[in-house]
Amino acid sequence: PLLLRNRQQRLPLPIHPNARTPPAPLTMTQEDTQAPVNFWGEHPATEAEYYAAHGAEGESSYFSTPDDAGARRLFTRSWRPAGGGAGARPRALVFMVHGYGNDISWTFQATAVFLARSGFACFAADLPGHGRSHGLQAFVPDLEVAVADLLAFFRSVRRREEHAGLPCFLFGESMGGAICLLIHLRTPPGEWAGAVLVAPMCRISDRIRPRWPVPEILTLVSRFAPTLPIVPTADLIEKSVKVPAKRLIAARNPMRYNGRPRLGTVMELLRATDELGARLGEVTIPFLVVHGSADEVTDPAVSGALYEAAASEDKTIKMYDGMLHSMLFGEPEENIERVRGDILAWLSERCTPAATS
């Protein structure tokens, strides 16, 4: 499909006739709660076989951050096209950032494998306090540290000789979209060829933001007990994932944080999104933002505000009627294919052509 730059599009999608009704409550039997080894089920038996079946290769490792105050360890993964021999080069590098409470080893991999099969080399790390990386689970008291850690890892990949001259893109889902924008605002112009923002959390909507004096009270309490998991919130899986069977898969993720948000994390997200909300006009990176109109986790109207305010000359927004927050996993397969296709088309227009045999 042909993407239209600098134009807002509203795309009707084939969706379940009851898509606008609230998802059914997540109920799990004892059999349901037995976590499978992999998010795709028992077969293929290994990650390597799953990658090969989908035209990709992958590996995982730890990255230690260069920090005078003490190195921190990030768990990282990479995915690349299958069969790339010596001298074979990907079309571009895609640096991916996951969302709050999530990680890079469960369903997040599906998008990376899709992009790898399409000729891109993808790289991602578990954020501090997430997955297998360092830190208390779901505790992110300083996004500046997280941004610095990710940037150190991303730049270490970019410096590899085999990657010289390749365009480099950012890709972020939800909170990861906010982190991508923070990375952009903290790096020199031209360092990134573009960014794909999937339902980004780039500002807390006024309709869901706590009213005075709640933020002031939370700020005070967080100074003394920042790690307390006391902030009430709706079930994010039920709010994000449309297909009931996929809600069960998401809930089985052994690394997913299912507790209440920690006070310090919430206050830091409010601070960071306040900064982004005030700096939308400073965004100059080429970007594609995709958002579902029925998203109740991040506000599609805020994505519209980003599109309108950004100074980027190359910007595209796509809104998908009836889609929820988990656009690249939780929707029916035909919806996922539509969003993937739009992302692939946007990236392909801005990088080297795919290799031909």
The fourth-level CATH homologous superfamily is: Alpha/Beta hydrolase fold, catalytic domain
Total beta strand runs: 9
Looking at CATH, which topology would you report? Rossmann fold
Broad CATH class: Alpha Beta
Question: What is the residue-mean pLDDT, rounded to a whole number?
Answer: 87
Q: Strand-and-helix sequence, N→C?
A: EHEEEHEHEHEHHHHEHEH
Helix content: 25-40%
Note the quaternary state here: single chain
Radius of gyration: 20 Å
Pfam families: Hydrolase_4
Biased composition (Low complexity): 1-13
InterPro entries: AB_hydrolase_1, AB_hydrolase_fold, Hydrolase_4, MAG_DAG_Lipase
Protein name: Serine aminopeptidase S33 domain-containing protein
Describe what you observe in this structure.
The protein is of the alpha/beta class. It has a single domain, classed as Rossmann fold. It has ten helices and nine strands. A nine-stranded mixed sheet has the order 1-9-8-7-6-4-5-3-2, sandwiched between helices. Helix 3 crosses helix 4 and helix 4 crosses helix 8. The chain starts with 7 loop residues before the first strand and ends in a 9-residue tail after the last helix.
For this entry, give a set of tags.
single chain; 357 residues; alpha/beta; Rossmann fold; nine-stranded mixed beta sheet; 9 strands; Hydrolase_4; MAG_DAG_Lipase; Serine aminopeptidase S33 domain-containing protein
